[in-house]
Design brief:
The protein has about 140 residues and is an alpha+beta fold. The chain contains 3 helices and 5 strands; from the N terminus they run H-E-E-E-H-E-E-H. It has one domain: 2-Layer Sandwich (HIT family, subunit A). It has a 5-stranded antiparallel β-sheet with strand order 1-2-3-5-4. Helix 2 crosses helix 3.
């Protein structure tokens, strides 16, 4: 396995070098909107500590990521009226990983609605901002 690259897009977001629509943050994790969403409300949960993926993340960091993923999944159901939630995590190129900083996808789902294909096309900024605000309201209990 290759070494961690501290110039990956998520490391740069964590350092504030690139913008993101943050929806949650604690001492160990952040949750942001995916800018190329496969569904409305597609969010990402990242550890603040550097790791490539599940194969090298420290157990405490993994536990923190999963606790945050659960929090975001519950908020997704409320914020988007979801019937369920898909949670995905990819490891190394052969496993489908594209950005080599551990992250978990949280996608609110509705019965009978397929995920959009991953085209690499960015969603409009106002849509991302609106979805982020829906999460923030749900997390605040509003």
């Amino acid at each position: 396995m290759a070494d961690y690259d501290d110039q990956n897009v998520f490391a740069r977001i964590l350092r504030g070098e690139l913008p993101s629509a943050r929806i949650y943050e604690d001492d160990a994790t952040i949750a942001i909107m995916d800018i190329m969403p496969r569904c409305d409300g597609h969010a990402l949960v990242l550890p603040k500590a550097p790791s490539r993926n599940l194969l090298d993340i420290a157990p405490a960091d993994l536990a923190a990521v999963m606790a945050t993923a659960q929090k975001i999944a519950r908020a997704a159901v409320t914020a988007f009226g979801a019937d369920g939630v898909t949670v995905q995590q990819f490891n190394e190129s052969a496993g489908g990983q594209v950005v080599f900083h551990t992250h978990v996808h949280v996608m609110p789902r509705k019965e009978g609605v397929a995920l959009r294909p991953h085209t690499g096309e960015m969603a409009p900024k106002d849509v991302i901002a609106s979805h982020a605000e829906a999460y923030r309201r749900a997390l605040a209990g509003a």
